[in-house]
Write a structure and sequence with these properties.
Oligomer: single chain
Largest sheet: 5 strands, antiparallel
Radius of gyration: 45 Å
Strand content: 15-25%
Order of helices and strands: HHHEEHHEEEHHEHEEHEEHEE
Shape: elongated
Structural class: alpha+beta
Strand order of the largest sheet: 2-1-5-4-3
Helix content: 40-55%
Length: 438
């Protein structure tokens, strides 16, 4: 069934509304005492007037609808500059046009925001120092940033649309992520951290792949670690070898002197004792380093936190240790390593207070599946915190500088952490250990 257009229906309805009145007037005109010329003239005028009013009514109704249709078509095509005339909120049709204008203005502002966001995203994508790739469901490349172009050694025009296998990126689309891969690209061989995620665009699934070059970062960190290690080892070894060399030269001169002095034997014994002590101290230093470097893998077993803390607190004989009981918890951890961790923290706290008054406080609580234990002292606090966990760095006479480094290594081996900060509410420092339950 063919539907009559709206403008024709409005015209017919207007004519039907006017026909009764027109018929009555014509009937009265033709039945009255009027001349034929007058009858025909008035009848023609009435018919023309009725048709004109019908057509005017049709235009009055359909023209705003056509304007709104043109606006919606422009909005659908992405043209947000078109605006309707006659938009007045005080009548129903004008209100519809007013709302259409507001819709166009809103879409126009949203488009500007979207364009600015896209421009910012393109800038960030081009400037970040990681390679970003997007693949469709057929593993064909759909997007690549500037770092990705440098990684593959080709411009985007030569890369887009190619298969991941042809680009050497097929391994990046397999398995779990994040993962570290060793691979060779146009920039050379290296280690890359691969991260992958899925998203939908146009109803189709895509994969976002991000490759971060770890080689430069690892090389820089490794170089800094070796520099720190060599610096510390050189310092400690030189501190031991310098007096050994000096005393050995003095003893050599005594042995060569003729006749030998009467106290030569005593000087020789004293000098050899000093050499032996320095050699023993150097041996202890190297043994401490070896112990930290060969920390065994933890052997988990059930440990009650209260018993562990109470036992270690009782080992400190030079300073009072106050244990503030927390929740009754049992964790899975290596008891020997945790003892070593807490002993080092309590010993550091006691040495930090020196001969001053005060006590050490140990307390613990729970937080998101982990126990958080704190060791608080009332000493002078931390003058500097940047070198606290650097192996062999120490500010204590005779210290080896491995206590905190070993403690953090133990905490991290259990999936936890160790931090040392100054107390906010008073003098002293607090060491916070976080250990997961399992």
């Amino acid at each position: 069934m063919t539907r009559t257009p709206l403008d024709r229906r409005i015209l017919l309805m207007a004519l039907l509304l006017g026909l009764p009145a027109l018929g009555v007037v014509i009937l009265l005109l033709w039945t009255g005492d009027f001349a034929d010329r007058t009858r025909w003239t008035v009848t023609g005028l009435l018919v023309c007037w009725t048709l004109a009013l019908a057509y005017a009514l049709r235009e009055k109704v359909t023209r705003p609808l056509q304007t709104m249709a043109n606006m919606l078509a422009a909005l659908r095509e992405g043209d947000f500059s078109l605006r309707a005339r006659g938009a007045h909120p005080d009548d129903s049709l004008g209100l519809a046009l007013f709302e259409a204008n507001m819709l166009g203005e809103t879409l126009r502002n949203q488009r500007f925001v979207s364009l600015e966001a896209m421009a910012l995203l393109r800038t960030v994508m081009s400037e970040i120092d990681v390679a970003v790739f997007t693949f469709d469901v057929e593993h064909r490349l759909r997007l690549v940033n500037r770092s990705g172009e440098r990684l593959l050694g080709k411009p985007a025009e030569q890369l887009l649309g190619k298969d991941a296998e042809a680009l050497g990126l097929a391994r990046c689309l397999e398995g779990e992520t994040p993962v570290v891969l060793e691979a060779a690209f146009a920039v050379g061989m290296g280690r890359w951290e691969v991260r992958r995620n899925r998203f939908r665009q146009g109803g189709a699934e895509h994969q976002l792949v991000v490759l971060a070059d770890l080689s430069r970062t690892l090389q820089a960190e490794e170089r800094q670690a070796w520099q720190r290690l060599v610096r510390v080892l050189s310092h400690e070894i030189n501190n031991s070898l310098a007096p050994i060399r000096s005393i050995a030269e003095s003893l050599g001169s005594i042995v060569k002197r003729q006749p030998r002095p009467a106290d030569a034997d005593a000087d020789l014994v004293d000098g050899l004792d000093i050499i032996a002590n320095r050699a023993e101290g150097l041996g202890r230093f190297l043994s401490a380093y070896a112990r930290m470097a060969r920390l065994p893998r933890p052997v988990p077993a059930p440990i009650r936190v209260k018993e562990w803390v109470t036992r270690v607190a009782g080992l400190e004989k030079h300073r009072q240790v106050n244990v503030v009981p927390g929740p009754d918890l049992t964790i899975q951890a290596d008891g020997d390593q945790l003892d070593q961790l807490l002993i080092n923290l309590v010993s550091n706290a006691a040495e930090a207070m020196g001969s001053g008054k005060g006590q050490i406080t140990i307390r613990w609580t729970t937080d998101r599946g982990a126990v958080e234990l704190s060791v608080e002292d009332e000493g002078p606090g931390l003058a500097q915190t940047e070198n606290l966990f650097v192996p062999f760095f120490t500010t204590k006479p005779g210290g080896t500088g491995i206590g905190l480094a070993l403690g953090r290594q133990i905490a991290e081996a259990h999936g936890g952490s160790l931090v040392l900060v100054n107390r906010g509410g008073g003098k002293g420092a607090v060491a916070r250990v976080r250990l997961p339950f399992g």
